[in-house]
Amino acid sequence: LATMPRQNNSIFYEIRTYDIKPSKMKEFVEMVNKYFHLRTAHSELVGFWSAELGAMNKVVHVWKYDNFAHRTAVRHALGNDKDWQGKFISPALPLIEKQRNEVAYLVPWCQLGKPPKEGGVYEWITFQMKPGGPALWGEAFRAAINAHINTGYTKLIGVFHTEYGLLNTVHVIWWNESPDHRAAGRHSAHEDARVVAAVRDSVRFLESQQNMLLIPLQCSPLK
User: Where is the NIPSNAP domain (predicted)?
Assistant: First the structure.
């Protein structure tokens, strides 16, 4: 009842969210920019962002794995990587207040996208849906996403559903040229009858929603 269909492969994504001590955010970001190549040598980083609006002193990073055996092997290698442990992990841990991870899959009708150019901002929206999975709300949710895509003001990067973590959770990542461009697009979308109708249908299955505006870090492949 809690999970959605997945794509026809074993690939999954680990979403890691860290709360950083407020006085240490600048130091943490500097360490990431300096040493994160040690981490990306082991597995594929999809994106790494810091929260600008909707949360404070928070970073989100997403990792791609071929399967669970792949992740296990990577975690084992990281534990034995003396450079990674000594140069980043040991000094970074005292800067972190809280860590959370989720395992998620791309929904079957979504491919991981890329922005049309660098320099924009990302909107990360977390939807907590009612229990029941896609048999209950899948088509209505997809219609609401497509309605926003069709307005043309924003670019869809990915739609993920959780397998481990809080279930019936869907994360949607959008790209916009700027916060002002996003605000203008949202205003227009709210006046579009097609968007209004699709959203009205989907929110019947929604329990809560949270938005963050994210800025990509220097090491992020998605910029």
Answer: 13-111, 122-221
pLDDT score recorded for residue 35: 97
Task: Quote the CA–CA distance of 68 and 12 in Å, as a whole number.
Answer: 8
Q: Dihedrals φ, ψ of 102, to 5°?
A: -135, 150
Beta bridge partners of 156: 174
Of 63, 80, 105, the last residue of a domain is 105
Determine the structural domain holding residue 147 and report its residue range. Answer: 106-216
Q: Are 123 and 209 in contact (CB under 8 A)?
A: no
* Mean local confidence (pLDDT), 78-90: 98
The separation between CA 54 and the C-alpha centre of its own chain, rounded to angstroms, equals 14
Structural domain includes residue 5: no
Q: Do 117 and 101 share a domain, yes or no?
A: no
Q: Which of 147, 146, 14, 143 is nearest to 78 (CA)?
A: 14
Nearest-angstrom CA–CA distance, 6 and 110: 10
Residue 100 CB coordination number (10 Å): 12
**CA distance linking residue 211 with residue 124, whole number of Å:** 6
- State whether 167 and 180 are in the same domain: yes
Which residues, in sequence order, are bridge partners of residue 213?
A: 53, 123
pTM: 0.93
Distance CA 41, CA 35 (A): 11
Task: Give the model confidence (pLDDT) of 98-156 as tens digits.
Answer: 999 999 999 989 999 999 999 999 999 999 999 987 778 889 999 999 999 999 889 99
pLDDT in tens, 100-116: 999 999 998 999 999 99
* H/E element, 179: helix 179-189
